Amino acid sequence: MKILELEILEVRGVRRLLLQPNGGSVIVVGPNGTGKSGIVDAIDFLLTGKIQRLEGKGTKSLSLRRHGVHIGALPANAKVRAKVSIPGVEAPIEICRSLAKPQTLEVSTDLADAIAPALSNAEHGQHSLSRREILRFIAAEPKDRAQQVQTLMRLSEVEDCRQALMKAKNELKDRSDEADRRVRRSQAGVSSAAQLEVYDTEELLATINAQRVLLAGSPLEGLRSAALQLALSPPTSSAPSSVNAAIARKDVAGLKEALATVNVDRRRNVIHELTLVLKSITQDPIALKDCRRLNLYELGRELLDEECTCPLCDTPWPEGVLASLLASKIERSQALTASMNEARRLAGMLADDCRKIRATTTEVARVMATLTPQSEAHRLLTQWLADLDDIDRQLASPVQEFLSNPSVFLGAELLRQPPGTISVLDGLDITLAASVPATSAQQTAWDLLTRIEEHTKLLADAEIASQSARHAANRAAILYGAFETSQNEVLQELYDQIRDRFVELYREVHSDDEADFGATMRPDGAGVAFEVDFYGVGQFPPNALHSEGHQDSMGLCLYLALAERLNRGVLDVIVLDDVVMSVDTGHRRHICRLLSKHLPDSQFIITTHERAWADQLITEGVAKPSNRIDLYNWSLETGPLVAESPGDMWTEVRSKLERNDISGAAHALRLNLERFFRRTCGSLKGQVPFNVSERWSLGDFLPASVTRLDKYIGEAINVAQSSGDTELKETLVALRARVKQARSQYTSEQGVMNPAVHFNEWANYSRQDFEPLVTAMQELCELFSCQACGGILEAVGKGEVITEVRCACGKSILRLSKLKSVKD
Amino acid sequence: MTLGHGDSDIAEEPAKITPKSKDSVLDKIIERVALRLRESDEFDEVHIRDITGLMTSGRVTSSNGLQSILFRETTISQ
Q1: Residue A104 is nearest to which of B7, B21, B43, comparing CB atoms?
Q2: Tens digit of pLDDT for each residue in A17-50?
Q3: Confidence band (pLDDT; 50, 70, 90) for A133?
């Protein structure tokens, strides 16, 4: 999409402004406060319905309705209208957006779909770059830069997807871990129900079969949760009771045994040992971080090549240094990994005890709930059960728990029963012995089988749920891994393409001082690592060593590389809002060449307060003179005041001449010639006499430029002659004759151009005298310009060796070495 | 004609017109994810179709839908 015509009405300080760039680039030049930014904001508003300057940090009190409309104007009268061209659509499309309805873009035709992709790109800020934004690309942390790049490249949907997959992976891992703990708790429940020390399927089967024999049944060959009482009949010799005293008293005895001093002391020792291990692990956070990267270090060591280049970022290392660093990290990580395994082993022992105590306490609390439901003793045990659940969870990840709350382990009171528990258990035992009727051995066997069956069913359910959760967690991990690997591949390919283009563009701007410039760009976790070459001594962050001007160039080139990739053929409008403030004049010329040569299909809207830069953009062919907007003032009543278009310098001079304004014409001629030959002196490397005051004038620049051009043509004639190209030689000889003729003309005017003359003597000429001078000067200037692109000639080469003189488009070339030809 | 969601509130987000680009970065990633999942025994075609469908439509951000697919497949395989 390109803008053919743009009309701004009552928006951001602009009362009414009509631009007709007809798809070409536009230069808006003017001092501060003349309304340049208003034009940028209006384009922003037209394309997005927003104004970036009114959004972001520090703009809380700003709003589109209050600060987008020109002061005193009504929102309904504030609008931006444009005629745009869309590739593949023959007729121009008219679009309009009003501050009264910022969400609505009025489109003149039914081709809204054709314009939608351009608007979508603009919505992501792909149409505009300001100096403030340049630094976000260059001086940003990888994560912040990633944010910028992601926004521009519309990668936020990728990051959203990655985060959702990671969240699912983590949640399913947690669910799987919790399901595993439930299995272990259920196993503890089964062993406690069977009154076994530990969960052991053989012992469990033996216990079950012992009960079955007591009930005159046949022993089972294997464990099946639903069949423990298969082919058995409930005993009839005694009435069933809600509490089986024999079983309950054994539970109480088992719990007392678990809480006996000897076991408490054993656990205390384990806790002490665990605490020491945890302290040693957590005292070195860097080692802890290294430990998580052990696999990466080991893989890195395997992949190290003979050139000692980092396999991750391709950074070269001195021989043996990276290998040694990896070896020390691996050694430290392995030692720490052993400690972590030990911590897990010790925590696992405590967790087994915890579950066992919890399971037995559950059985005892159940009896207590039947016999003394509202008692303080029952409340005590119930509360302890909740605490044991927490401890079981904490022991599952001891290192993390220790890091977040060391006191959990440091007190060595973990798993210590609440005060009074033993007395409660003694009291319960007495009650069971005295108040609960005894049951037959058969009834006890039946009750025990009933209880075991209940728990084995729970265990079977837990195992199914655990298996299912493990499968899901495994799938989520595979899915996340596949996404991450694919994302890194695709992004790396994308970043490689952008980097290559960025380097190409930057080399164009800095061909004189950084012709071998290089850069790296790669995904860095959720960020984008970006480093650039600094004069061949290594890769550094872009804002580390380069000057501010170089950083501006980098930001511009990176933005253009990104924008080009996304916008080509979709949104060709690129707004560059005062982006070369820190770039020197010489490199600005290179930027002009970059824009016209590398991005010829883009429509740039360039704002600047520097007239010299605006002149450069015109003479280098980035924009036509008719697309230059000179703003010279601004007022609340009028908005920006646009100077009469100067057109090219000859139009300006001749129009004054037509009006018989010889003084004005003379002034314009002198001023424009001085600017022009100052530039040709620079582009052709003309030599002006050194002046300690550093004030040179037309009298210095013009002869130096002509002399240098004459020298280059002479060299090109020699090359043509030695190549046997007679036709070319004749063309060049004729060209040289024109230079000679022009030289004689300006020589006669030398006195007039002398800076010692304090007034412009041309102003005293008659029109008849002045007109031939203008014609001669115009012919002279044309010798320095390409008739095809309008750009001035430039000496190109390496260092001091000039190999050719050429224009920006390449149609005008003077070859200064063999096998070359001249065009035009 | 007009593009947009409505004109009632100036503070609302502007119209979002995001036609799916065939060569979007996410689409390229999803294509490769599908290839990788096919290499794993843990996923079948229905599974891959449902997961990539969720990702393409942007609905994967609600991880509940994704989790139910991952669990559902586990149940079927059993």
Answers
A1: B7
A2: 888 889 999 999 888 888 888 888 888 888 888 8
A3: low
Q: Do A468 and B74 touch (CB under 8 A)?
A: yes
User: Contact at 8 Å (CB) between B42 and B20?
Assistant: no
Whole-number Cα distances in Å, A201 to A204, A208, A216, A353? 5, 10, 22, 18
* pTM, two decimal places: 0.60
The structure tokens 């057109």 sit at: A647
Taking the CA atoms of A585, A587, A588 and A592 in sequence, report the sign of the dihedral they define.
positive
A612 touches chain B (CB under 8 A): no
Distances (CA, A) of A155 to A125, A499, A764, B58: 13, 17, 66, 13
| Per-residue pLDDT, A555 | 82
User: Which residue, B57, B58, B17, B50, is CA-closest to A104?
Assistant: B17
Taking contacts as CB-CB distances below 8 angstroms, the residues of chain A near B38 are none
Confidence class for position A476, pLDDT limits 50, 70, 90: very high
List the A813-815 sheet strands across, edge first.
A794-798, A801-806, A813-815
Distance, C-alpha A14 to centroid of its chain: 35
Q: Report yes or no: A60 at the B interface, CB cutoff 8 Å.
A: no
CB contact at 8 A, A449 and A170: no
- A363 or A789, which is more confident? A363
Q: Please indicate whether, in this complex, the C-beta atoms of B77 and A471 are within 8 angstroms of each other.
A: yes
Task: Answer whether A106 touches B (CB < 8 Å).
Answer: yes
Cβ neighbours of residue A665 closer than 8 Å, sequence gap 6 or more: A653, A654, A656, A657, A770, A774
Q: Which chain B positions have a beta carbon within 8 Å of A105's beta carbon?
A: 2-4, 15
Edge-first strand listing for the sheet containing A527-533: A519-524, A527-533, A539-540
Is A151 an 8 Å CB contact of chain B?
Answer: no
The tokens of B34 are what?
């599908």
| A-B Cβ pairs (cutoff 8 Å, strict) | 146
CA distances from A601 to A94, A207, B20 (A): 21, 86, 25
Contacts of A447-451 with CB under 8 Å at 24 or more apart are A447/A240, A447/A244, A447/A247, A448/A193, A448/A194, A448/A195, A448/A207, A448/A211, A448/A244, A448/A247, A449/A208, A449/A211, A449/A212, A449/A215, A449/A228, A449/A229, A449/A232, A450/A229, A451/A193, A451/A247, A451/A363
Decide if the complex's ipTM is over 0.85.
Answer: no
Q: Which residues of A touch B13 (CB under 8 A)?
A: 103
Of B25, B33, B75, the CB nearest to A155: B25
Residue A772 CB partners (closer than 8 Å, separation 6+): none
DSSP collapsed to 3 states, A286-352: HHHHHHHCHHHHHHHHHHCCCCCECCCCCCECCCCHHHHHHHHHHHHHHHHHHHHHHHHHHHHHHHH
**B16 three-class SS:** coil
- Tell me the one-letter amino acid at A731: T
Give the span between the Cα atoms of B37 and B48, in whole angstroms: 7
- DSSP-derived pairing of the beta strands A26-29 and A603-608: parallel
Among left, alpha and beta (phi > 0; psi -120 to 50; other), residue A685 is: left
Cβ count near A70 (within 10 Å): 21
For A722-739, write each residue's pLDDT tens digit. Answer: 888 888 889 889 888 888
| Phi, psi angles (nearest 5°) of residue A547 | -70, 170
Neighbours of A717 (CB within 10 A): 20
